[in-house]
Amino acid sequence: MTPLRAQVERIEQIRSRFDDQVEFFVVYVQEAHPTDGRQSDSNVTEGVLFRQHQSFDEREEVAQTCSLDLHITLPVLVEEMDNVIDKAHGAAPERLYLIDADGRVAYHGGAGPHFFDLDEWEQALEVCVAKAEVAG
């Protein structure tokens, strides 16, 4: 199970804690382990079987399916087919980011699944919110 799938509940708890101070989004990018590419055993076991998207409509449909299946209540943004976000930020398979009030990257988590650290991300949120309160 990927960190995102395993920790949706914890992500939602963190969101609840900071929801009045921070905007949260999921950015859905290209499939990291598509059925027509490097499929992972955990995806097969869990029935997460999607080919690499051939169109934006297909990507949007898979993003919606994943969001519903995982009970994600965060807004889901879907990357365009040019994969600029994924290429620029190494977003696949999963990354945690925090953008501060000035639009700067305040936290850039490591690549999932091994460096997906919700404790570290939550600490960065605490620091960022505290700085915003002092500046505010």
TrEMBL record:
PANTHER family: IODOTHYRONINE DEIODINASE, TYPE I IODOTHYRONINE DEIODINASE. It comes from marine metagenome. This is Deiodinase. GO terms for molecular function: thyroxine 5'-deiodinase activity. GO terms for biological process: thyroid hormone metabolic process.
